[in-house]
Amino acid sequence: MPERRRQLTAFHRQGENFARSRAGAWYFINVAMRIDRMLLPLSRGRVSSAVGQQVGLLETTGAKSGARRRIPLLYLRDARNVILIASKGGNVKNPAWYWNLKANPSVRFLGPGGLTGEYVAREAEGDERARLWAEAVDYYDGFATYQGRTDGRRIPVVVLEPAARDGA
User: Fold this and answer.
1) What is the CA radius of gyration of the chain?
2) What confidence category does residue 43 fall into, taking pLDDT thresholds of 50, 70 and 90?
3) CA separation for the pair 121, 107 (Å, rounded)
């Protein structure tokens, strides 16, 4: 694996090691997400249970139910876009939020630094996907570990582009 550009403290390295373990992935999917569903809106996207990581709140419309769904996710920035990785801790199936935004690509995202707003989701492909995947693995190398657990599923890289505003 190439050397990472992102430099981590020993504390953050230990956190990443835990998060990429099977137990850590379970914890973040089943426990931390429940906490962050409440914590992120209360802090306007500034505070998450995943200390040292960028976590935002994605709001989608259920593909089957039509109900609003909120899911805390690690994210990256690419200019004005928000980048999400549909890893589900290396599960062999894509996460439900991925199918929700495939069915209904208009989403809302809550994040600090001007990221809160309406977006349109699309899946990255080709050179763009390769570049964004490399950046994601550099940011959190657990994504590479998760890819090895997927039994051949290619983890989708999702791009959220700011929705066009009338008169903008």
Assistant:
1) 15
2) confident
3) 7
Could you tell me if residue 31 is inside a domain?
yes
Q: What distance lies between CA 64 and its chain's CA centroid?
A: 22
**Please, are residues 6 and 138 in contact by the beta-carbon 8 Å criterion?**
yes
Q: Has residue 167 been placed in a domain?
A: no
**19: domain range?**
10-162
The CA distances from residue 117 to 18, 96, 136, in Å, are 31, 21, 22
φ and ψ of 49, to 5 deg = -75, -15
C-beta of residue 111 within 8 angstroms of C-beta of residue 57: yes
pTM: 0.85
Do the bridges between strand 68-78 and strand 117-123 make them parallel or antiparallel, or are there none, so unpaired? unpaired
Give the model confidence (pLDDT) of 74-115 as tens digits: 999 999 999 999 999 999 999 999 999 999 999 999 998 778
Assign residue 55 the CATH number of its domain: 2.30.110.10
Query: Does any domain span residue 60?
Result: yes
